[in-house]
Amino acid sequence: MNKAELIEALKDGNGLTKAEAAKIVNLFFDEISSALEKDYRVEIRGFCSFYIKNYKAYTGRNPKTGTTVSVHPKKLPFFKCGKELKERVDTE
Question: Which of 14, 17, 30, 87 qualifies as a FRET site for 57, CA 20 to 30 Å off?
């Protein structure tokens, strides 16, 4: 499911206009993004959590040339699946 399909599903299931559904979806993702920018952890109980992982600088190697490269410190967003979602997906 992509963002447009999510908007369509929200619109159809709740009697909202497409503009209202799009506003809700965009607001949801914007708030998660804003929280992650501030290094906050976002937790949606039973579904997932989003958090930022910090990596220190290190010396890497260019696989093509074999030369050493300095890799700067970085922050990356991570998604961790919640227990209830894991169980719901893993039904066979």
Answer: 30
